[in-house]
């Protein structure tokens, strides 16, 4: 999936940002989804699942050795990336084309490198063009809380 470039998604972006000028075709053909940009097993290894009825998205994540912050633990920026990706997916699948307006993260405990964690996100409310999504990052057995986050997404307006 890291090499997948959706021409449909590119056209959607052009609707909301008609004045934007994408890079030339050659670099675009080499573009990768950021969390999928490292070799398999060395960076972000994850799978996401969405429940449309409950407006929930769950991500199973294993952070590889290239994501180390302090020795033996995932870098906070890597955790933030996956939180943003998960709550963002929840917002996109619920509200359509959206953009992160705000992301607040409380880091509770460091995540050991190469451990598997679960990111549980849910849509909390919608107010006009605003979508409020929250999540937590826990161990598989749900006994350890690593992080909690709240986020605000804004539906893009093509006007």
Describe the fold and architecture.
Its EC number is 3.1.2.2. It is a peripheral membrane protein. Belongs to the THEM4/THEM5 thioesterase family. The chain is an alpha+beta fold. It has helices at residues 7-16, 25-29, 76-95, and strands at 44-51, 56-63, 98-107, 116-127, 130-139, 145-155. The chain has a single domain (34-155), classed as Hotdog Thioesterase (Thiol Ester Dehydrase, Chain A, Roll). A six-stranded antiparallel β-sheet has the order 1-2-4-5-6-3, covered by helices on one side. The longest helix is centred in the middle third of the chain and has 20 residues, at 76-95. The chain is globular.
Entry keywords:
single chain, Thiol Ester Dehydrase, Chain A, 3 helices, 159 residues, 6 strands, alpha+beta, 6-stranded antiparallel β-sheet, 37% strand
Task: List unreliable stretches of 5+ residues.
Answer: none
Mean pLDDT, rounded to whole units?
Answer: 84
Q: Which percent band covers the strand fraction?
A: 35-45%
Element-by-element helix/strand order:
HHEEHEEEE
Number of domains: 1
Judged by helices, strands and strand pairing, the structural class is alpha+beta
Counting DSSP E segments of at least 2 residues, the number of strands comes to 6
Instruction: Supply the CATH class.
Output: Alpha Beta
